[in-house]
Amino acid sequence: LEALSLAAGGGEAAAAGRQLLEGRRATLASALELEGTVLREGRLTQFVANNLERRIRLSGAPRSEPPAGGGGSSIPAIDPGALQDVVALAGQVAAQVDELLRNVHCGLQALTALSVGCIQTYRDGVESLGEAADLSIRAMYALVARCEELDRAMQPVPALAKRIRDMKGTLERLEGLCK
């Protein structure tokens, strides 16, 4: 749009050129607004055509036939070189998307393998802890059982100690008599 506007305004004085340039831009923008949506952001102007698909189909139709949609405006033919460029760019984009998906796939496989490894390590740790706890409980029960056996075996000791004290006392009295 700007190139057309500049071409229309070229060769005039600066002030008159600016006024004509602004007028030409307004005329082009108004004409374009009838055919689609015009968006302006600073110096950038974007145009989105209404019924773009129909316009593309009509541009490929032979010139002798009237357009099927009955539109009164003539649409220029699409440049085959531009279509080839679009096809080539689409192929490049598809290749890049394929490479991106392969990289994502490889990354996901690595993360999955790492997650599986962590889960297996956790599982092994839990199993090992369970086995260690079980062995500790068994050892504790065995110790308690041995302590009970020892307690039962030691029950006659107090009576035996009393007998030994009695014997010792009797021996001391006998010694005292013999002296």
TrEMBL record:
<dbReference type="GO" id="GO:0099078">
    <property type="term" value="C:BORC complex"/>
</dbReference>
<dbReference type="Pfam" id="PF10157">
    <property type="entry name" value="BORCS6"/>
</dbReference>
<dbReference type="InterPro" id="IPR019314">
    <property type="entry name" value="BORCS6"/>
</dbReference>
<dbReference type="GO" id="GO:0032418">
    <property type="term" value="P:lysosome localization"/>
</dbReference>
<feature type="domain" description="BLOC-1-related complex subunit 6 C-terminal helix">
    <location>
        <begin position="76"/>
        <end position="175"/>
    </location>
</feature>
<protein>
    <submittedName>
        <fullName>BORC6 protein</fullName>
    </submittedName>
</protein>
<dbReference type="InterPro" id="IPR046465">
    <property type="entry name" value="BORCS6_C"/>
</dbReference>
